[in-house]
UniProtKB/TrEMBL annotation:
PROSITE patterns in the record: RESPONSE_REGULATORY, SIGMA54_INTERACT_1, SIGMA54_INTERACT_4
Pfam families: AAA_lid_14 (PF25601), HTH_8 (PF02954), Response_reg (PF00072), Sigma54_activat (PF00158)
Region (Disordered): 366-402
Domain Sigma-54 factor interaction: 119-348
Organism name: Pseudobythopirellula maris
Entries under InterPro entries matching the protein: AAA+_ATPase, AAA_lid_NorR, CheY-like_superfamily, Homeodomain-like_sf, HTH_Fis, P-loop_NTPase, Sig_transdc_resp-reg_receiver, Sigma_54_int
Record localization: Cytoplasm
Primary location: cytoplasm
Keywords recorded for this protein, A-Z: Activator, ATP-binding, Cytoplasm, DNA-binding, Nitrogen fixation, Nucleotide-binding, Phosphoprotein, Repressor, Transcription, Transcription regulation, Two-component regulatory system
Name of this protein: DNA-binding transcriptional regulator NtrC
GO molecular function: ATP binding; sequence-specific DNA binding
Length: 482
């Protein structure tokens, strides 16, 4: 591997060597003559919390391995040690250590908000959202928040409430898509005892509870016609009856609603009331999808990394350049909510002070950005990356070309076998597909079998068997023996 090795026979000698030589990685046995490896590991962490430490354990000692990972070990090995695996693991540890000392994607983390969620965004479209919230917050009119799932519609609703005249009143949120018609009607308007099967007591609905405050109706496009008609009356008169009741109840609520559906089209098709749409749409705020927000993605990654470091008790202070590139190339179909989930998963897989590409979930490893259609089925130039058109091919074209080339190769393989005849086409095709899959994944992980087995969802032992069976050679490049 071209690295120097400094041996130490005891924990005390090893800790002294770490102080004298500042190594890039440590290989630590749990069985030492003067103290346990885990106790030695704690002392190493006190000296240098960013130093990658690989723990070597006896086969089957899962408790020790789990405890080591909980304490922050880079990884662990079981005995007898697979030398090739050891070399790869040490290589990754050294790379992690060196990346920690060079400029990385995010080296100036913001402090996470202590008082709750925070708006993050500097792009023009998000600045317009902030301005819109400021304009409408004090105005006691209904607001319709529009945008794809995961873009932060509830966050906008809460900002309107917090900056509005009703900020001292209640704020209640109801997901209209999560409840059946009967349950949603009862949730919003309440019910009298005996109104329906299971209604053993009177229930006060959200509109009654929220008197003087703001109610947030999420996924408002999923309301049934019956509920739509009752919400319309409430908007018009601020009056309603509980389910099964005759008494008219007056309330005073502000409605902020949200949807990711095309309400105009639903109105045309008779699935949503025109008059209710006009009432809800007193003021519209549209949230942009994350894939169109440019450098805001870096700000959000920075924000979530700082926030989740604090939440999970981690100390990841940067993102490796290749990991950052993959995060920026990803399409984010789940928008901001998905980014938060991805960063959390990556931090849980991360074993060093730098978030590396190998820690990212499998879905992020797709380099081709998938263009999306707007509500009319037309892909915008901005979402295709054509804000600044280039003369050469785009990354999308390269991704599609690679995918098409792979599909053509697979089709050619089948055609050749059909021409050749024979009765083993099914088995041959499966074997061909398995070799293709394994070589692609191993190439993606740089030969890291632990990461490859995680992506494939199989054990390392099973992966090793498949590598051997398929004649795959792991070196500087992943090749197949002919």
């Amino acid at each position: 591997m071209g690295v120097g090795v400094i041996p130490a026979l005891t924990a005390s000698e090893g800790i002294e060597a770490i102080s004298n030589h500042q190594p890039d990685a440590v290989l630590l046995d749990v069985m030492l003559p003067d103290m346990s490896g885990l106790d030695a590991f704690k002392l190493i962490r006190e000296k240098d919390p960013r130093l990658p430490v690989i723990i070597a354990t006896a086969a089957g000692s899962s408790d020790t391995a789990i405890e080591a990972m909980k304490l922050g070990a880079f990884d662990y090995l079981t005995k007898p040690i697979d030398v090739e695996h050891l070399e790869r693991l040490v290589g990754h540890a050294i790379q992690s250590r060196r990346l920690a000392s060079v400029p990385v994607g995010m080296n100036n983390l913001t402090k996470p908000e202590d008082k709750g969620d925070a708006f993050v965004g500097r792009c023009p479209s998000m600045q317009e959202v902030f301005k819109a919230v400021g304009r409408v917050a004090q105005q006691d009119v209904p607001v319709l928040v529009r945008g794809e799932s995961g873009t932060g519609k509830e966050l906008v609703a809460r900002a309107i409430f917090q900056h509005g005249a009703r900020s001292q009143g209640p704020f209640l949120a109801v997901n209209c898509a999560a409840l059946s018609e009967t349950l949603l009607e009862s949730e919003l308007f309440g019910h009298e005892k005996g109104a329906f099967t299971g209604a053993h007591d009177r229930r006060i609905g959200k509109f009654e509870q929220c008197n003087g405050g703001t109610i947030f109706l999420d996924e408002v496009g999923d309301m049934s016609p019956l509920v739509q008609s009752k919400v319309l009356r409430l908007l018009q008169q601020q009056k309603f009856e509980r389910v099964g009741g005759n008494s008219t109840i007056e309330t005073n609520v502000r409605i902020v609603s949200a949807t990711n559906r095309d309400l105009e089209k639903m109105c045309e098709e008779g699935d949503f009331r025109n008059d209710l749409f006009y009432r809800l749409n007193g003021y519209t705020i549209t949230l942009p999808p994350l894939r169109t927000r440019g450098d805001d993605r870096v700000l959000l990654l920075q924000h979530f990394l700082a926030q989740l470091n604090k939440e999970l008790g981690r100390d990841v202070n940067g993102v490796a350049p290749d990991a950052m590139q993959r995060l920026l190339d990803y399409d984010w179909p789940g928008n901001v909510r998905e980014m938060q989930s991805v960063v959390k998963q990556a931090l849980l897989h991360c074993t060093g002070p730098v978030l590396m590409a190998s820690a990212l979930p499998a879905e992020v490893h797709s380099s081709a950005v998938k263009p999306r259609s707007d509500s009319h089925g037309v892909t915008s130039a901005t979402e295709r990356g054509e804000e600044h058109p280039q003369q050469g091919g785009t990354s999308d074209e390269a991704g599609h070309a690679a995918a098409n080339g792979s599909a053509a190769s697979f089709a050619s393989f089948i055609d050749d076998r059909l021409v050749a005849g024979g009765g083993e086409l099914y088995a041959e095709t499966l074997a061909h597909m398995e070799r293709e899959l394994l070589t692609r994944v191993l190439t993606r992980t740089g030969g890291n079998q632990s990461e490859a087995s995680r992506i494939l969802g199989i054990t390392r032992g099973s992966l090793r068997n498949k590598i051997r069976t398929n004649g795959i050679v792991i070196g500087p490049d992943i090749t197949v023996k002919q």
